[in-house]
Amino acid sequence: MANKKKTAKDPGQGFLVALQELGQEKGIAPEVLFDAIEAALISAYKRNFASAQNVKVTLDRVTGDYHVYAVKTVVENVTNDILEIGIGQARTIDPEVELGSSVNIEVTPANFGRIAAQTAKQVVVQRVREAERGIIYETFVSREGDIITGTVQRLENRNVLIDLGKTEAVLAPAEQIPGETYVHGKKIKAYVTEVKKTNKGPQVVLSRTHPNLVRRLFELEVPELQEGVVEIKAVAREPGSRSKIAVYSESPDIDPLGACLGQKGLRVQAVVDELGSEKIDIVKWNPDSAKYIANALSPCAVVSVAVNEAEKVSRVIVPDDKLSLGIGKEGQNARLAAKLTGWKIDIKSVSQAEGEVLSEGMNEVAVTGEESFTTEEV
Predict the structure, then answer these.
(1) Is the alpha carbon torsion for 253, 256, 260, 266 positive or negative?
(2) Which of 188, 207, 226 is the endpoint of a domain?
(3) What's the structural domain count of the chain?
C-alpha cells in the first residue's frame, strides 16, 4: 500500500525536541502527544479543506515530517469515488492489493504547513493543561478526609475561594462557620470533603463545619493521637457554638483527657483558636453505655441512667438544680450528647422522675460521671 510521498518538514526536528522535552517536564509520554496531534491534524485537514474523504495523518517520530493520506477501499466497481478506488487503479499504486483492502493516496496540501504548526501547538497546550490538571487532581484527591491550610483569596457569590498554591478551593456558604469572617490574605485550616473533576479542572471542596475538622485539628496538636495510643471515638458538633469529643485509651497508664488538654490546656486552646472560640467538651468514652451517656452530658452531674440497649433509648436523672445545665441552652447539651453517643436521651430531674415507672426493657443504674473538661472552665 505504498505510494509517492510528498515530504513536509514542519514541525521538524526543533519541534520534536521541544515536544519530547515538554513531555518529560510535564510527565506526558511523547507518544500520547504524537497520537493527539495526528488526530487533531485529521480534523484540521477536513475543516480547512472541506474534505469528506476518509483520511489519516502520519507524523514521523524521528524527522518530524507529516503526510496526509486519503484512505480508499478497493472495489470492483466504484460507486463513491471519494471513498472507493477501482481494483485496476489501485494496483498501479500497490500491485499486490486485493479487493476489500485499502490504499493510501497522499493528498498533503502544499500550504498545510502553517495549519499543521498551529494545530500541533494547540494540541500540545491543551494536553499540557490536561496533564497539569490531572497532577493537581491526584495531589488533592489523596487529601480527601484530611485537613489543609490555605489563604483566603476572595468572596464570589457568597462562596469563599481559598488559594491552596497549585489550585483554588471553594468554601460554600453551608460549609462556613456561622458568624466567621473571611478576610483576604487570612490563613485558615479546612477539611477536604471532596475533590471533583470539572470542565475547568479539579475543584477542591472544603468545609469549616464538618465534625471531622475538629478531629483532624486535635490530631495535629496531640502526638498521642498521631501515635494511636489515644483515640477519638466520636465527635458531635454545632459549628461556631459547641463541640463534644469522646476520647479513649486502652493503656491504663495514659490519660486520654490530659493528652488532649495538653500542659495548661495549650493543645485544646490551639483548636479553639482555630475554630473562632467554639466551646469544646472533652469526655471519656466508656464501653458501658450508661457511663458513656453520663460522661457525654458533661458538665452536668448525673444521678442515674436507665438504658434500653436494643432500642438505644435512655432516661437520665440529674439533680433538680442541674436540669437546665443537663439540657443546655436551647437543648444544645442534650442534643450534642445524643449525637455523640448515638442514643436517644430523655433527661429528667430527681423530682420529675419520682414515682415514675420505667418502660419495659429499661435497666437503671446509678452512675457517677468520669472526669471531663469543657473550655468554659478556662
Answers:
(1) negative
(2) 207
(3) 3
In a domain, 3, yes or no: no
Pairing of strands 147-156, 159-163: antiparallel
Nearest to 177 by CA among 274, 244, 280, 261: 274
**Residues 370, 225: one domain?**
yes
The answer to whether 274 and 187 have CB atoms below 8 angstroms apart is no
Supply the mean pLDDT for the chain: 87
**Dist. CA 290–CA 304, nearest whole Å:** 8
Range of the domain at 40: 12-139
pLDDT tens per residue, range 280-297 = 999 999 999 999 999 999
pLDDT at res. 4: 43
Cell numbers 470542565 correspond to 199
Q: What is the pLDDT of residues 81-125, one digit of tens each?
A: 888 889 888 888 888 889 989 888 888 887 777 777 777 777 777
On whether residue 297 sits in a domain, the answer given is yes
> Is 7 a member of any domain?
no
The dihedral region occupied by 312, where left means phi > 0, alpha psi between -120 and 50, and beta the remainder, is left
Give residue 217's identity as a one-letter amino acid code.
L
230 and 292, same structural domain? yes
Please confirm whether the linkage preceding 299 is cis (ω < 30° from 0): yes
Q: Does 198 share its domain with 239? A: no
DSSP 270-306: HHHHHTTS-EEEEEE--SSHHHHHHHHTTTS--SEEE
Instruction: Report the percent of the chain where pLDDT is more than 70.
Output: 94
Instruction: For residue 29, give the CATH number of its domain.
Output: 3.30.1480.10
